[in-house]
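BUG: 3D viewer hangs when loading the predicted structure for this chain

Environment: internal workstation, default settings.
Expected: structure renders.
Actual: progress bar stalls at 90%.

Input used:
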Amino acid sequence: MSDEDNKSRAVPSGRLSRFGHFGRLAGGVAGGMLAEGARRLAEGQRPRMRDMLLTPGNVGRIADRLSHLRGAAMKLGQMISMDAGDMLPPELAEIMARLRQNAHRMPPQQLQQVLATQWGKDWRTRFTHFDATPVAAASIGQVHRAITRDGRDLAIKVQYPGVSDSIDADVDNVATLLRVSGLLPRHLDIAPLLAAAKEQLREEADYLREGEQMTLFGDFLTDSPDYVVPLLDREFTTQQVLAMSFVEGRPIESLVDAPQAVRDAALRALIALVLREMFDFGMMQTDPNFANYRYQPETGRLILLDFGASRPVPTATSWGYLELLRATIAVERDRVLDAALAAGFVGPSAIAHHRPRIMRMIDVVIGEMAKAGPFDFGDRGFVEVLREQGMDIAADQTAWHIPPADILFVQRKISGTALLAARLKARVDVRAMIAPYLTARVGAV
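Structure tokens produced before the viewer hung:
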């Protein structure tokens, strides 16, 4: 079997089928645990549950099965990897990294079935060309390029079958994996977070909604020369198929070897977008996956893709961030702590037990923001200090705290943007970009 064939795997679409895959995963993992437990006992060890679960063999089984299922299971894994990769046990980090890399696609016959259901059996007669090999494959759908009879060049995102019906079960099963791994303390109430994740994933699986969000952001940015937003093609868009104008561009990561000025300009535009989303639009595309950004070398413009994770930014959330920024710029460390507590970034227990460490982290952030001129995202020395203090606090599971869902989604976009800036070693005067917002009224578009 060729590598090309290996990348084509039918997506389990029915509830019973997907349940069976999770069952086989559980059986395989259980067998691996028994074998590992027996081996350790024979060596005179007293094995822990986590050590038996996260063996190399089980890591491979879990990553392979979740990537085969795709949908919410794979999407959650990718989200966790991007948001908390540095805080995960090495074994779980490997699972999540594999989920980022795997990009299996539907075999042609399954693609045909999906499109026949959405467009009718004669759908091919509406195109002069439809490329059966996707130009991109991700967790929820895959993208094909096509030319219509009247010459429209389209990018068509086709949702994997069964994704929307399996969201609740997939989220619950991934949560169980995190629980059993010992990553999450048993006393931590993650029910609100799971509910928010399910709601977000349902919205991402609604391609009619995503089409409207794409049009909304196109309207927001119509006079902004730094960005390109594809145009929705309503004729071919359905609940599970999203059609839009095809826009040529390069992966944003390809700028890693570009001149410093090019990298700086690209990230300056992305940071400006995040600020406008939070403080002007009141609406944010909260998925910072690098694949959602492409770059046009001939124009220097950024192509913005994938608006399924767009969500309103409540005024209270915007004000919470604004107060944090004001206190940080004013170098008022106690005020920064009060703002972080009020917004929900940190919980009372963490402050009560780890105040010196938290203040050390605040001092590091204030020190970095106080530097004049461009911020060098490639200089990651301060991150090690923050990570060291954060890991010490995280070791105390009684101090664990889950911020409000709205904060988590916004922070995910901010952290992902910073991660991309670090990848490209961009230098951007963030302080100067923030300055106009410190005295402005939030929500004035």
